[in-house]
Write a structure and sequence with these properties.
The complex is a heterodimer.
Chain A: E1 4-6, E2 11-14, E3 19-25, E4 32-38, E5 44-50, E6 55-57, E7 60-65, E8 70-75, E9 84-92, E10 97-100, E11 104-109
Parallel strand pairs in A: 2-11
Antiparallel strand pairs in A: 1-3, 3-8, 4-5, 4-9, 6-7, 7-8, 9-10, 9-11
Chain B: E1 5-7, E2 10-13, E3 19-24, E4 31-37, E5 43-50, E6 65-69, E7 75-79, E8 88-95, E9 107-108, E10 112-116
Parallel strand pairs in B: 2-10
Antiparallel strand pairs in B: 1-3, 3-7, 4-5, 4-8, 6-7, 8-9, 8-10
The chains are: A mainly beta, B mainly beta.
Chain lengths: 110, 117
């Protein structure tokens, strides 16, 4: 089983829709969690950290479910500019190494 | 510049040749990472430098790969006797916080596209 797994998609949604992605992780002792976005042929950029109590940043909400070992990202009122690949990142192990998921591709359609 | 700088942006080489990839992190960032990304895949960890500590080399795929970081700043990733399976985008990232703090926001360079013919 991969350390970090994501549904690769693609998710094709109309503008204004709400879309959610999940990311599961295998190490129950994982400590830190992040979402990055990567535009086509560009470098990844941090979207948001994921806190235990859940956190929101504008149209984006991130949640952590430790019991089921997954994190989620919810995007409300999708914009065309949200089209990208969303990468889940988990920090775990004695060295707290950062492990990236393979990403979920989102396309927001006009 | 204010961001992470990588060079060259593209490198085409012949199988069996050695290549050197360079990364210039954001000034003052003590943490530096190398990742590689194959087409349509996620990021594969290669190596992590933190200040003057011994690097975490656990992600290097073979002894053909090595990296160094001089003076706690610029880093070079060297691939000896390149193989076709080494073709990928090599990404460098830096952070002002060490790995494991929970605050490690990574800033990535735009990468080096390596093609081994």
């Amino acid at each position: 089983r991969k350390e970090v797994e994501q549904d690769p998609g693609p998710f094709n949604v109309p503008e204004g829709a709400t879309v959610a992605f999940n990311c599961t992780y295998s190490n129950s002792a994982s400590q830190s969690f992040f979402w990055y976005r990567q535009d086509c042929r560009k470098e990844p950029k941090l979207l948001m950290s994921v806190y235990s109590s859940g956190n929101e940043d504008g149209r984006f909400t991130a949640q952590l479910n430790r019991a089921s070992q997954y994190i989620s990202l919810l995007i409300r009122d999708s914009k065309l500019s949200d089209s990208a690949t969303y990468l889940c990142v988990v920090s775990s192990g004695s060295a707290r190494q950062l492990t990236f998921g393979s990403g979920t591709q989102l396309t927001v359609l006009p | 510049g204010a961001g992470v700088s990588q060079s060259p942006s593209n490198k085409v080489t012949e199988k069996g040749k050695d290549v050197e990839l360079r990364c210039d992190p954001i000034s003052g960032h003590t943490a530096l990472y190398w990742y590689r990304q194959s087409l349509g895949q996620g990021l594969e960890f290669l190596i992590y430098f933190q200040g003057n500590s011994a690097p975490d080399k656990s992600g290097l795929p073979s002894d053909r790969f090595s990296a160094e970081r001089t003076g706690g700043s610029v880093s070079t990733l060297t691939i000896q006797r390149t193989q076709q399976e080494d073709s990928a985008v090599y990404l460098c990232a830096s952070s002002s916080f060490p790995q494991g703090t929970g605050n490690e926001k990574l800033f990535f360079g735009s990468g080096t596209q390596l093609s081994v013919l």
